[in-house]
Design brief:
The complex is a heterodimer of chains A (317) and B (284). Chain A is α+β, with helices and mostly antiparallel strands. Helices cover 26% and strands 29% of the residues of chain A. Chain A is elongated. The chains are: A alpha+beta (317), B alpha+beta (284).
């Protein structure tokens, strides 16, 4: 009932430990927890993924579903093809933490939704927005990104972005056939029809360029990645850097109001997050490759699935 | 499977039920904890084991919050400071209460608590502090009343907390262990385990004035590494559902020495270590 309380002694233990480079769970400052990720777990969605960042079946657990819907062009919209084509909504489930009950999660929800929105809506996102346009100035696809935080153990931003990237990579847009008709007045009219065949659906163009984020948490005079809940409570300030696979920085956000960074520390922090991002990209890729292998094995096994009791916790979800 | 068969079943194995499982339709039985009645039939409302005492049927759940008993040794966190009392989170359904009259004042002097003590309650325990205490009594509403009237009880320092599943910590003669690796472990029956640097009992007694201090002693990198390793060992035991006792922690610790402290929680290594520990526990 008091997950958000920390005694001064614990605070001191964590801060001094980070100063010495050994964290409460034995990790170094730039060590990540174990990452598990699975794609295509919601059949009704166009794309989905679930990720867990933590050890032995516990940790921050995020589920992202993506739904593509057709939006109508309204007069006065900007011509910028990338404006508001992705609608983000993040919700923290009260089952994740007692503090999220009632209206407790509102602030976190808003913060994460806006952050995701800023990261995805715009050319920095990497997705080819032209693909989302069906008929210019008439109809286009809107991607609804809905994330649910199922379990909370620190560092939600990076986990959220990894899950979103995996879900967008998994997304298939239904095929649309556009027909041009000339009506009796000689005006060219365009109509479209959505093809109902899932085989014809196409993946998003530019999905490989979607960035990931690396969030650095400042604790004492040092910064760490991937904090647990207790470490997060000791954090004075945090910096989220989004980096694309090419290693280019696509966005920076400083949050957590308690204090700021020394400007001189920033260049180094950016360099560190660039390096950590490449670590994350490899981790994510490996994990996705592993999970697709597992899926294939499941299919081979058919109905003869027997739970392995000795290592039930290894079954990720 | 019906309750009438339960005697027969009991000889073979326990009757395991899930929420909504029909236990019996016989109207002569009474429903106890963990069950609900609908149309004179009794269903389970939790997943657990069916227990029957004469005509009373109850289900003992597998997973539940900590249920206190008098004499339990626990670790709790202060959540609120009230008049003459502290509210303490003990991983139970409701917060426990620590009365000002049930603590030892600095210096260990036995005397009546005065008004000035009431005014400086936050210098003893304030919100967020961790206490090592014993369950003294129940209140009428089921809340636990704690006390810290012993030199070994009081504020916890020099370490970090691990939260585990309460049922995995068995009640035993001692809940304070100094492990051979130089780490002190306080195993709260409520599932909060405090792992800290070893401080000899004589030093604690000599510094009786400092029992409410908020300062850590110096902890070396070596000691931190050992504490982290013990913490990870306890987490491992919790996740793999092995009883957490001083023996099982020591076995896990010894088995883990071939790996770096941070690697213990890797899935493959953890499964391997758990097998070794289970085998060793079965041998004894």
């Amino acid at each position: 009932m008091s997950t958000l309380l920390l005694s001064p002694v614990e605070r001191d233990y964590i801060t001094k430990g980070i100063e010495k480079g050994i964290r409460a769970d034995g990790r170094d400052r730039l060590d990540w927890r174990h990452l598990q990720i699975r794609q295509s777990i919601i059949s009704q969605a166009n794309g989905s993924a679930r990720c867990r960042l933590g050890n032995l079946g516990f940790g921050t657990d995020i589920l992202v579903g993506i739904k593509a819907e057709i939006g109508q062009y309204t007069q006065g919209d900007s011509n910028n093809p990338s404006s508001q084509k992705i609608v983000c909504n993040v919700e923290c489930s009260p089952s994740a933490m007692q503090e999220f009950e009632g209206r407790g999660a509102d602030e976190v929800n808003l913060e994460l939704s806006q952050l995701l929105d800023r990261l995805l809506n715009g050319p920095q996102c990497g997705i080819d927005f032209d693909q989302l346009c069906i008929i210019p100035k008439q109809a286009y696809w809107v991607l609804y990104v809905d994330a649910l935080v199922l379990d909370y153990d620190g560092n939600p931003i990076d986990a959220l972005m990894m899950t979103t990237r995996a879900a967008l990579a998994d997304t298939r847009l239904p095929k649309v056939v556009v027909e041009s008709i000339t009506d009796e007045n000689g005006v060219l009219q365009q109509e479209f029809e959505v093809v109902d065949d899932p085989q014809a659906a196409e993946p998003l163009k530019g999905r490989d360029n979607i960035p990931l984020t690396v969030t650095l948490y400042q604790i004492g005079g040092n910064y760490v990645v991937d904090t647990g809940l207790q470490e997060e409570l000791c954090t004075k300030a945090r910096l989220t850097v989004s980096v694309n696979p090419a290693g280019e920085i696509c966005g920076i956000q400083k949050s957590h109001t308690k204090s700021g960074f020394a400007p001189s520390a920033l260049p180094e922090m950016l360099k560190v997050s660039q390096k950590q991002a490449s670590v994350l990209f490899t981790k994510l890729e490996n994990e996705l490759a592993k999970s697709s292998n597992d899926n294939q094995m499941d299919v081979d096994d058919g109905d003869s699935f027997e739970p392995d009791t000795g290592s039930t916790f290894l079954v990720p979800f | 499977m019906d309750i009438d068969n339960i005697e027969k079943v009991k000889q073979e194995s326990a009757l395991l039920v899930t929420p909504g499982y029909l236990i019996t339709q016989d109207p002569e039985f009474m429903r106890g904890h963990g069950t609900f009645a609908e149309d004179s039939a009794i269903y389970s409302s939790v997943s657990g084991v069916v227990e029957r005492i004469n005509k009373l049927i109850s289900v003992r759940p597998f997973k539940q919050r900590y249920q206190g008993e008098i004499g339990d040794i626990i670790v709790g966190r202060i959540t609120e400071v009230g008049s003459k009392r502290w509210k303490v989170d003990v991983n139970s359904r409701q917060d426990a209460v620590l009365l000002l009259s049930s603590i030892n004042l600095p210096g260990g002097i036995q005397r009546r608590k005065s008004e000035s003590d009431e005014l400086q309650m936050r210098t003893f325990f304030s919100e967020g502090d961790l206490v090592f205490a014993e369950v003294q009594n129940y209140f009428n509403d089921g809340a636990l009343s704690l006390h810290t009237r012993s030199i070994q009880y009081g504020k916890l320092r020099n370490g970090t907390i691990v939260k585990v599943f309460p049922k995995l910590v068995p009640r035993s003669r001692s809940h304070f262990h100094s492990l051979p690796c130089g780490v002190d472990v306080v195993m709260g029956v409520n599932g909060y385990i405090w792992v800290s640097k070893h401080v000899p009992q004589s030093t604690v007694e000599a510094n009786a004035e400092e029992i409410y201090s908020n300062k850590n002693e110096k902890i070396s990198t070596q000691e931190r590494e050992t504490i982290a390793r013990v913490c990870n060992c306890i987490t491992l035991l919790d996740r793999l559902f092995i009883k957490i006792t001083d023996t099982s922690v020591i076995y896990t610790y010894e088995a883990s020495l071939g790996h770096a402290a941070k690697e213990i929680l890797n899935h493959d290594i953890a499964a391997d270590l758990a097998d070794q520990v289970k085998a060793r526990l079965n041998d004894h």
